[in-house]
Amino acid sequence: MKSIYYFTCSLMILFSSVSFAETSTCVDKAQVKDVMKDFDFYGSAQWDLCNDKNRLTQVSKALILLKGLKLQNATGPFSQNILKEQPYDFFKKRVSKIVFEASCDDSTTTAYVIHEQKQIIHICPREQEVIDTAATLVHEARHLDGYRHVDCKRGLYSLQPGNGACDSSYELKGSYAINVDFYLKVASTSSVSPALRQFAKSNTLYYLTERFNALPGDLKDGLFLTNMDNQVSFFDGTSNPAIKTLKTGAIQFLNGNAHPDIADQPKGIDLATTENYGCLLGSVKMVCYSLRDTSDTFTLNWKQIRPLSIYAVSTDRGHLQMTITDKQDRIADLPQDFEDLKRMRESDFNLKPNRAKILKIQQRRPYTFGGAYEVALKQDGKVFLKEGAGLTPVLTDQRFKNIVGPVVWSPTLEAL
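Request: output the structure for the sequence above.
Response:
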C-alpha cells in the first residue's frame, strides 16, 4: 500500500493569512471559503487565487464550478445516467480530504486515489483546464466506489504496455464511464455556455473512442475515405457507408487536441500517428504531438515544400514509419523519435521520387502491427488492402483522393 504523508500545516490555516487582490481575474474569496467548508485541504502548495496556472486555484475553481452546476440528464444511446445526483454532491459524499502533492510519480497524472484509503483524493501539480479538473475530481471519486482500470487492448494507449489506462467496457459504469456521463450532461444542459457545451461534446467523443476495450454501442474501427466528388465514407474493411456530414474526425485525434489554426487552413488537413507521435499536416504548417505528453508539440511552417499527404506505414521491423508526400510526387520519411523530429528544419527533409506511386497508407485499428490490415491509396485513386507484401483491390467501382485514420465512428456518434 502506498503511504501518505500529511503536512503539519493545513491549507485551511494558510488560507486565513493570505491576502487577495480584488480584481475580476481572481477567484472570489467568499466562494472559496464556501467550498472549503466541505473539505479538509492538506499540502505544501501556496495559495495564489489570482493565478490561473496555480493548481490550488484550478481545483478551487473546479469545486466552485461543480457546486454551481445544475446538470440536466442526457438522452440518447450513450446515456447511462450514472450520476444520480448533481456532481458536487456525488464528489462530497465520497471525498472529505484533498491532498495537494508537491510531485507525483508520473508527470502525466493529474490526480489519484489509493483504494485502501477512505475519502481521500491526491492532487498532482500538473495543470488542467477548470472543466477537466472538475471531471477529474468526479472520475477519482468514482474509483472510491471500488472501480479500477485495466490495460488498454486497443487504441492509442495500447501502445504502452502496462498502461492501466482503460476500462473494460462502458457498460461497467466505471471511472471513464462517469467521465462520459459528466460531459454528456454538461453538453445537454441549456444553462451552460455554448463554448463549454461544445468542449464537453469533444471530450465525450474522446472518452467513448479511446478509453474502453469494448467499443460502446455501434461504434466501429475504420477509416474515412474521400472520393473525387468530396463525398466522405467510412470504411470498416467490409463496407463503406456514405456520410452526409462529418463533424467528429478532427476532434478525436490525439486526446481531443484539435487545433483550429491548422484545421482552418484553406486546403484542409491530413493526419497520422505512429507509436511515438502524431502529426496534423496542413498546406501552411505541420503540427506534431508526442504521445507520451500531448502538450509537447512541434510546429513546422512550410516555405518551400508543397505537402500533399502524411501517413504511417508498417515496416518489416514491426514499427510505424511516418512519411509525407508532396505535389511533385516525392516522399520523405520522418524520424522515429519525437525529439529528433523537433530538431528538424524544412531543409532537412530528404525528398525522393515516389516509385511505388502510393499516395498514402493508413492502418486500421487495433494497433496490432503484425495483424491489423492497412489500406493503401494509389495515385490513380484506387484503394487496396495491404496484406503482407501484396495489395488486394477493394471498392473497385470508386476512385478516392484521400484516406484518414484510424478512426472510430458510427452514425449515433455523429448525432452527438
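The CA atoms of residues 382 and 397 lie 9 Å apart.
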